[in-house]
Design brief:
single chain; mainly alpha; two-stranded antiparallel sheet; about 20% helix
Length: about 400
């Protein structure tokens, strides 16, 4: 029993030793492979570089001798060392590894150039994209009749000579392939030919787009039809239904079968704003019917309302409010006595103010040149100009 136990223990130790040996061998092999990989990447082999230089120094030990320490930190010559600039006499000059290292950037550029030269065939049909008419369709190298991505076929179900693969109505013969609304569906099989949202069977203009108007939550709206004749306005040759075609009707939107036109301006009286003024049809203008919108001075203000008809004055400024613009008023700051307004009322207003006369003062007689009654109270008198004021300003008393 003891012997068996001893053998078992010995066997365990033997296996442990073997395992340790195998691990060391594996580590050594891994280290060797890494070293070789690094040498391949750098492109440098120390032993080969040294051999290529002189063919000598094959067994040179790269370990430099330790520098003796004699206590002189600055004197490199006494202890046998030549300082930083002196070469190692034993190792000579080491090869410049950086100089022998290949340019990795150039290698990458060459690889990229090689990649660009590789022909591309995206659909894998054996035809490179540059020569493939359908580079994404593995079944076609040329579009053919049906185009890329569509199986080529000469099938023509409706017998209109257009293959089904490109026929916009493959089940309805339509050799002309007309598609009014451009939706990809031919008119021959399109239930809304004009694409206005109204089915052909309900559309009052099936070939001309005229969508419904006035839609609300209570109504889906209706297509415009002025005369309610069942033909939409978009395609009706007589909108107002008066028997006169639109291009000949002087009031195309108003029923006037007699086509009366009193002023002969081409617009019927029924729809003419100024039926007796040939110069105005759709608006009375600023001056109204019967009055021309003449503008003599070209300031944009018609003569009928211009306060200076012959002088350019866009602002129409009239400081004294006499109806004559400042631009043509000789006295723009004094209202003309001959203009609208009672001069007597003006005199009464000035006399009632009490600013220029005392209670006992008398209004001077314009015919009396002496004006003896106004020598007191320090009033300023302007004798012959019919003006009077205490502060020197002139008040017209006429």
């Amino acid at each position: 029993m003891k012997r068996a136990t001893i053998l078992a223990i010995s066997f365990v130790f033997f296996l442990a030793a073997c395992n340790e040996t195998l691990e060391r061998i594996a580590d050594k092999d891994s280290f060797t492979e890494e070293s070789e990989t690094k040498d391949d990447i750098s492109g440098t082999d120390d032993s080969e570089t040294a051999g290529d230089s002189d063919g000598e120094n094959e067994d040179v030990d790269d370990e430099r001798p330790e520098r003796p320490d004699n206590g002189n930190e600055n004197d490199g010559e006494e202890d046998g060392w030549g300082g930083e600039d002196e070469e190692d006499p034993e190792n000579n000059e080491r090869p410049d590894r950086d100089g022998d290292r290949p340019d990795r950037d150039n290698e990458e550029d060459e690889e990229n150039e090689n990649d660009e030269d590789i022909p591309i065939d995206r659909d894998g049909d054996g035809v490179i994209d540059e020569e493939d008419g359908c580079p994404e369709d593995p079944d076609k190298a040329e579009p053919g009749i049906c185009g890329c991505g569509i199986a080529e076929s000469e099938l023509d179900t409706d017998k209109d000579t257009i293959p089904d693969c490109i026929d916009n109505c493959p089940l309805d013969a339509n050799k002309d392939q007309t598609d009014s609304d451009g939706n990809g569906q031919g008119d021959a099989c399109d239930d809304d030919i004009d694409g206005d949202g109204v089915k052909n069977v309900e559309d009052n203009c099936p070939n001309i787009a005229n969508p419904k108007e006035g839609a609300s939550i209570f109504s889906s709206g209706r297509q415009p039809d002025l005369d309610s004749d069942g033909i939409g306005d978009a395609c009706d040759e007589d909108l107002d239904g008066d028997g006169v075609k639109n291009n000949e009707d002087n009031c195309p939107n108003d029923t006037n079968p007699l086509q009366e036109d009193a002023d002969g301006d081409g617009v019927g009286d029924l729809c003419d704003i100024c039926p007796d003024d040939a110069g105005k049809t759709i608006s009375e203008g600023i001056c109204g019917c019967g009055v021309a919108e003449t503008d003599n001075d070209g300031d944009g203000v018609p003569n009928c309302v211009d306060n200076c008809q012959e002088i350019y004055n866009v602002s129409q400024l009239d400081t004294d409010g006499d109806g004559i613009g400042d631009a043509c008023d000789e006295n723009p700051y004094v209202k003309d006595e001959n203009d609208s307004g009672d001069s007597a009322d003006s005199d009464d207003d000035s006399g009632d103010s009490g600013d220029d006369y005392g209670d006992d003062d008398e209004v001077p007689d314009n015919g009396d040149s002496d004006n003896e009654d106004f020598e007191d109270s320090g009033d300023t008198e302007i004798s012959d100009d019919s003006c009077y004021s205490r502060d020197g300003s002139c008040i017209n008393l006429i």
